[in-house]
Specification:
By secondary structure, this protein is α+β, with helices and mostly antiparallel strands. It has two domains: 67 residues, no CATH class; 141 residues, 3-Layer(aba) Sandwich (Glutaredoxin), CATH 3.40.30. Helices cover 23% and strands 26% of the residues. It has a five-stranded mixed sheet with strand order 9-8-7-10-11. The protein has a four-stranded antiparallel sheet with strand order 4-3-5-6, with no helix packed on it. It has a two-stranded antiparallel sheet with strand order 1-2. α2 runs parallel beside α5. The longest helix has 19 residues. 22% of the residues are buried.
Length: 234
């Protein structure tokens, strides 16, 4: 098993991969716990399979047929990376459209979402968790010359307008870009049906690849998959 073209020694059977025997036109898996590395198999034809869960609940999988000859050693390998042919589709966009987000930023005197991640957030627990998720992406974004741009959606009251605690949270998550402030009038245009919520925008090569509103603790997984698809893992 490989990830990023390197051996993945932590891959687990029945979670990441499996081996099945071709018999009577069907795949049969009579063995428990196939493992990585050299092991004994009966001679015959087999199917090696991998699966990787992607957002939305579906799985991205690969299959490879191989044959074991009597007394011979066969080597078979598959990558666990999500490859071409998979995309988030409609699930990549929720809440305000990219055009509406750009209009709100412009109304507040801010530049549109550029290359990399833009996190627009009002104060609250969902924002803290989204900041932590973006922090997990910081090293990979830096490797590609990208950054996470934080934009604070300021509220009308003093309690909702103080950005100081959020600068501290951003620093703790190793997100070094300056915190920009979007005035209440412009921020109100981005509120969903249940009120303000974090919005994440991913732009790669000038194209908006992700624009989602709401709490998503695993958004770093989603962004990593999109980065994998954008010219391969780096």
């Amino acid at each position: 098993m490989t990830r990023d073209a390197r051996p993945d020694t932590l891959a687990e059977s029945y979670r990441h991969f499996n081996v099945a025997r071709l018999a009577a036109g069907a795949c049969q898996s009579p063995w428990w716990e196939p493992r990585l590395g050299e092991q004994d198999w009966d001679a015959g034809d087999f199917v090696f399979s991998t699966a990787n869960r992607v957002p939305g609940g579906s799985a991205y999988g690969r299959l490879k047929r191989f044959r074991v000859e009597p007394g011979a050693l066969s080597a078979v390998s598959l990558p666990l990376d999500v490859g071409p042919g998979w995309s988030l589709g409609e699930s990549a966009f929720s809440g305000p459209s990219p055009a509406a987000i750009a209009a709100a930023l412009a109304a507040g005197g801010l530049a549109p979402a550029g290359e990399g991640l833009t996190l627009l957030f009002p104060p609250g627990e969902p924002a803290a968790r989204m900041i932590a998720a973006c922090g997990r992406l910081a090293p990979r974004l830096a490797d590609r010359g990208l950054a996470c741009r934080p934009v604070f959606l300021s509220g009308e009251t003093a309690a909702l307008a103080d950005p100081a605690p959020w600068r501290e949270k951003l620093a703790a998550a190793a997100l070094a870009a300056p915190l920009e402030l979007l005035a209440p009038a412009a921020a109100a245009a981005l509120a969903g049906s249940e009120g303000p919520a974090p919005i994440l925008v991913l732009v790669l090569d000038g194209e908006v690849r992700l624009a989602r509103q709401g709490l998503d603790d695993s958004v770093d997984v989603t962004v990593n998959l999109l980065l994998d698809l954008e010219g391969g893992a780096r």
